[in-house]
Write a structure and sequence with these properties.
heterodimer, A: 117 residues, mainly alpha, 3-stranded antiparallel β-sheet, 5 helices, B: 205 residues, alpha/beta, disordered N terminus
């Protein structure tokens, strides 16, 4: 790695995520649906710009992948930031990701897709 | 992206999901560059396909790929995705990913919990899909997949059996023709995959 490396991004990813490459919860994925917890509690002054931006865009229901695109951040960064906000109670995950897709979901998917034909 | 006007006061109608949605599911749309992944996603998605990018450093690219590229220590990998709200409580995401498994790791948890993978194939360049199938069979063996042959002008009309043999597919893998530009055709390809995933679950354990 040379110092020329610094050109590709103004701020290195590990700065945005506090030095971590992986989220604290592995159930958080690009398709995970999140919303801001409507508590009225504001973020501490120490909160990062990315945390504020993510919480702002998640005032209504959205997947993390979509939030990342709208914020112009890599999904990998948003997943880590979201994980922190969930841990601190500012962001809420709609439903925890199941380890495997259930039959009920597959059937619901099938019915929904058939209506599109 | 054309979905937002500005950071403040933008028109966000259509950006957010209905408040009734409780769960998300995802399907990976996999295939080599130029096979029509984004076209298929765009033909069925309720939002214009969105693009996300990740930076891959030399450590994850692998030495071979960088041979001869002196200054290239990082490369950008893009992924396009779309969304279909299939019912008042369920939303489906379609992630169009490059074929190589190592790219999937750039998007945290991308392959985990997926319904399955729709593998798009261009019969004019069949050999470019070999790596995709190899990855699916060796690294993500639990992930059901179906093959959608995107018909390009000038492509040879291989029959499903011929393709099955040429690609050495596991028995029972659905192979069907698809016009990625055409919504009903793309939806049918997705239905075939979901049906296959359901059948795979029926196998007694």
């Amino acid at each position: 790695m040379s110092s020329g490396d610094y050109r590709d991004r103004p701020v290195r990813r590990y700065v945005l995520t506090g030095g971590r490459a992986a989220p604290t919860r592995n159930a958080i994925r690009p398709e995970t649906l999140v919303t801001a917890v409507p508590s009225g509690r504001s973020l501490p002054v120490s909160a990062s710009r990315e945390e504020r931006a993510l919480l702002g865009i998640c005032r209504r229901l959205l997947s993390l992948a979509e939030a990342a695109v709208h914020l112009d951040l890599p999904v990998s960064v948003v997943v880590v930031v979201a994980s922190d906000l969930v841990d601190s109670g500012y962001l809420s995950v709609r439903s925890p990701a199941p380890p495997a897709v259930s039959r009920a979901v597959l059937e619901e998917l099938l019915n929904g897709l058939r209506k599109l034909c | 992206m054309d979905s937002a006007n500005s950071a403040d006061g933008y028109d966000d109608s259509g950006r957010y999901l209905p408040a009734t949605v409780e769960q998300s599911a995802k399907i990976l749309v996999v295939g080599p560059f130029g096979v029509g992944k984004t076209t298929l996603i765009g033909s069925v998605s309720e939002i214009a396909p969105l693009r996300t990018e990740e930076t891959m450093t030399s450590a994850s690219v692998g030495v071979d790929d960088l041979a001869g590229l002196d200054d290239k220590t990082s490369t950008t990998v893009a992924m396009d995705f779309g969304r279909i709200t299939v019912s008042s409580r369920l939303v489906l995401y379609l992630f169009g990913t490059p074929g190589q498994r190592r790219f999937w790791d750039l998007w945290e948890g991308l392959a985990e919990g997926a319904v399955g993978a729709l593998v798009m194939v261009d019969t004019r360049r069949l050999e470019r899909s070999f790596e995709v199938f190899d990855q699916l069979e060796t690294h993500t063996a639990a992930l059901p997949f179906a093959v959608a042959v995107n018909r390009f002008p000038g492509s040879r009309p291989y029959g499903p059996d011929h393709l099955r043999e040429a690609l050495d597919l596991p028995p029972g893998t659905p192979v069907s023709d698809c016009d990625a530009r055409n919504r009903p055709s793309s939806v049918t390809a997705l239905i075939t995959l979901v049906q296959h995933a359901l059948t795979a679950q029926k196998v007694p354990s």
